[in-house]
């Protein structure tokens, strides 16, 4: 007999017909209604991602996620992960050096911000774009090395595997990825 399906149902157990009632501690202690105990759901971990899409001539700079983290093996733009529970972020200092003190040509895309839910994590993701026309080349090489970013020809970018949230971004902002 499938006891769980026929007699010991979670909402209305048929204890008086149950062949195990003499051995059932919950029944003996008159605490059947306390079972099954609900396990409280673990709160999802919140993370704050800001992606900066770097474009230089016919290339987009991407990296492959290698760490044992979400999206392992998939590609992404330059990611700045920050802690504050705020949608505003400031560029990391390493990034500011690239532009030799000139104004950084950063285009924020607040309309692309999205909350993305995974099984155990909630990601607040925002995006901005930078076309790298004028950078300090030496500092830029160091930056690419440190961040493990590689130039990928735009026509090849669409053949790489991305997390769904970044694929959606590509489609929405396709005009930025057109070859000049
Ligand atoms: S007696 Fe125990 S095992 Fe049997 S139906 Fe009731 S709670 Fe379930």
Can you describe this structure in just a few lines?
With 180 residues, the chain is of the alpha+beta class. It has helices spanning 3-6, 25-28, 93-96, 137-147, 154-157, 164-172, and strands at residues 45-56, 59-64, 75-76, 78-82, 106-108, 114-117, 121-131, 150-153. The chain is elongated.
Please characterize this protein's 3D structure:
- With 180 residues, this protein is of the alpha+beta class.
- It has two domains: 3-34, no CATH class; 45-177, Alpha-Beta Complex (Nucleoside Triphosphate Pyrophosphohydrolase).
- 20% of the residues lie in helices and 26% in strands.
- The protein contains six helices and eight strands.
- The protein has helices at residues 3-6, 25-28, 93-96, 137-147, 154-157, 164-172, and strands at residues 45-56, 59-64, 75-76, 78-82, 106-108, 114-117, 121-131, 150-153.
- Strands 1, 2, 3, 4, 5, 6, 7 and 8 form an eight-stranded mixed β-sheet that branches.
- It binds iron/sulfur cluster (SF4).
- Iron/sulfur cluster is lined by residues 7-8, 13-15, 18, 20-21, 24, 26-27, 32.
- Residues 7-8, 13-15, 18, 20-21, 24, 26-27, 32 line the site of iron/sulfur cluster.
């Amino acid at each position: 007999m499938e006891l769980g399906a026929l007699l010991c149902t979670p909402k209305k157990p048929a204890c008086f017909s149950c062949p195990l009632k003499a051995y059932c501690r919950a029944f003996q202690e008159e605490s059947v209604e306390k079972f099954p105990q609900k396990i409280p759901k673990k709160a999802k971990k919140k993370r704050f991602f800001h992606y900066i899409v770097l474009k230089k001539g016919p290339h987009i700079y991407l990296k492959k996620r290698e760490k044992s983290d979400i999206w392992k093996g998939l590609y992404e733009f330059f990611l700045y992960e920050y802690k504050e529970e705020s949608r505003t972020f400031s560029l990391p200092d390493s990034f500011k050096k690239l532009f030799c003190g000139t104004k950084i040509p950063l285009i924020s895309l607040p309309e692309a911000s999205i909350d993305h839910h995974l099984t155990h994590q909630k990601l607040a993701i925002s995006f901005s774009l930078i076309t790298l026309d004028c950078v300090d080349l030496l500092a830029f090489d160091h930056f690419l090395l440190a961040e493990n970013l590689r130039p990928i020809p735009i026509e090849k970018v669409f053949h790489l595997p991305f997390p769904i949230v970044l694929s959606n971004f590509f489609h929405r902002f396709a005009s930025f990825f057109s070859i000049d």
